[in-house]
Amino acid sequence: MHLLATSTQRNLGMAIAVVAIVGFAVYLIYNVLWAGRAEKGSELDLAPNRKPYLSDEQLETSKLDLALVSGLVTLVIIGVALPLYWLGEPGRQQGYLEYSREQFTGRGAGLYEESCSSCHGGGGLGGTTDHTIADDNGNFVAAIKWEAPALTTTLYRFSEEEVRHILDYGRPPTPMQAWGLPGGGPLTSQQVDELIQYIQSIQLSPEQVQGEVMDGLVAQVRSDVRAANPELAARLDAAAAAVATAGPDEAAAEAAAREVAALEQELREASEQYIRSLAPADRGELLFDNGVYGCARCHTPRDSWQFTGPEVTPGAGPVVLERGSGAEAETIAQLGGLIPADISGGGGFGPNLTNGATLRQFDSAEGHASFIAIGSQEGVGYGNFGQGDGGGQMPAFGICVGDRDSGERSPIYGFCITEDGGTRPGMLTDAQIADIVAYERSEEFNLPAAVPGRGS
Ligand code: HEC
Ligand code: HEC
């Protein structure tokens, strides 16, 4: 953008210089070589100051009026046109900002495709990456797929400075490596800005965010709701089978597909009804486990891991674990606890919240909820006595923080302020956060350490 601007200015300057030089040359040629030569007559006759000038009448009327009018016009230009120009100036600057945003977004999109999409998916919609788990001595423990979260709500939860921190330093020990120069990565701070600008351009609307939060809850209760509505489930299965067996008969295939869509809609309404009817703590558990919209991916061990396989037995090469199966449990036992058990809230990238830890941190449900709403800020303590050590890594779930602590450093700002001057809501509603708090303060969540695998 800067390069482009300088080159436009340089081109303009060159054009003006060429016009001036050519003009001066023409002037010289005309005067010195040509017009300056021949005497056309006697100086007495031709000298301009010897000619009679206008009469007093003429001077005091049309000539004077002309001088006054041109003075007035000049004044009008100074008095009106200049302020008008300055009125337009902010618009011009705004246009320039938008232009540079577009430039940044375009370049960020290119960088994203190159460096990030292999893990975070095309368009930032989320994906997985192969990863190897090793023990403290660097010995191979297991091969897994690690889920790389969708980046389409990142700026609802993290400020731009926090995103910059994640990009600069990565998130060890996860596969998210340091990308910025401060963390030893390859990207300059301007490239990191461009990536943040690109991330801003792919953020979902608040309505889409709430829709996706609900989609995640509905997916989690699907089998429960099917079990509670056996007749609906049977009709759905029959319709799905009809789609599969419709063959080349297009009309039949279309009718079957319409039937499936209608029944899916019915199942969805039943699911939403079911979710509304749950006790707050149970709904809170669903919200806690809700993928990129939830908490488990940072607070529950192994939640971001996908187990596929199994391939080879422990000790004899790669162990690929299958989630939830007997084989997984067995392998984990054989691995001697190298992989922590997946106790909900038992700690991962974020601290262990169970076994009374969070209850000690927050005396009241209100304080607890407001921490989840605003997240942590680097260097700002939290909790009852500010004893929590804010690292800025706990996202804000209840308010949009995209612009928080971003200075005038980059052209990236304004995500949380909407075009009509309003503020964007957070990712979760107050009611949803209250449900999560009910879950985290429940007895089930705070089972004592005596329960095998529980506790910190
Ligand atoms: C090798 C795979 C990989 C690559 C390449 C990668 N990431 Fe990540 N990224 C991850 C994983 C995995 C996580 C989640 C870590 C965790 O579980 O806490 C993550 C987390 C993040 C987060 C935090 C999101 C959140 O909500 O917690 C951001 C932002 C991010 N990556 C941006 C990027 C950008 C931008 C690039 C390209 C410069 C990039 N990543 C490249 C794997 C990758
Ligand atoms: C991107 C990872 C991440 C996600 C997602 C996340 N957290 Fe956290 N959380 C953290 C980190 C890291 C901390 C520690 C504070 C810090 O480093 O700033 C933390 C701290 C906390 C604490 C304070 C714990 C203590 O004892 O100090 C609570 C409570 C909490 N998170 C609840 C939640 C809830 C509820 C959700 C989901 C709505 C959630 N977290 C989602 C990373 C995460």
List the helices and strands and how they pair.
Elements: H1 2-35, H2 43-46, H3 56-115, H4 117-120, E1 127-134, E2 140-148, H5 154-157, H6 160-169, H7 189-201, H8 206-228, H9 230-245, H10 250-277, H11 280-288, H12 296-299, E3 305-306, H13 326-334, H14 357-361, H15 365-374, H16 430-440
Antiparallel strand pairs: 1-2, 2-3
Helix pairs in contact: 3-7, 6-7, 8-10, 9-10, 11-16, 15-16
One heme C binds near residues 116, 154 and 304.
Describe this protein with a few key phrases:
456 residues, mainly alpha, 3-stranded antiparallel beta sheet, binds heme C
Order of helices and strands: HHHHEEHHHHHHHHEHHHH
Proportion of residues in extended strands? under 5%
First and last CA, distance: 51 Å
Main sheet overview:
3 strands, antiparallel
Lateral strand order in the biggest sheet: 1-2-3
Flag low-confidence runs: 1-5, 309-325, 332-338, 449-456
Output mean pLDDT: 83
Give the helix level as a range of percent: 40-55%
Q: Based on helices, strands and strand pairing, what is the structural class?
A: mainly alpha
Helix count?
A: 16
**Can you list the ligands bound to this structure?**
heme C
Tally the beta strands: 3
Spatial shape = elongated
Instruction: Please state the CA-atom Rg, rounded to the nearest Å.
Output: 35 Å
Describe the structure.
The chain has 456 residues and is mainly α. Among the domains are: 125-148 and 305-341, no CATH class; 207-277. The protein is built from 16 helices and three strands. It has helices at residues 2-35, 43-46, 56-115, 117-120, 154-157, 160-169, 189-201, 206-228, 230-245, 250-277, 280-288, 296-299, 326-334, 357-361, 365-374, 430-440; strands at residues 127-134, 140-148, 305-306. Strands 1-2-3 form a three-stranded antiparallel β-sheet. Helix 3 crosses helix 7 (189-201). The longest helix is centred in the first third of the chain and has 60 residues, at 56-115. The chain is elongated, with a radius of gyration of 35 Å. Mean pLDDT is 83; it is low at 1-5, 309-325, 332-338 and 449-456. One heme C binds at residues 294-295, 297-299, 349-351, 353, 357-358, 361, 371-372, 376, 388, 390-395, 397, 436. One heme C binds at residues 115-116, 118-120, 129, 146, 148-149, 151, 154, 163, 166-167, 171, 174-176, 179, 195, 297-298, 304, 349.
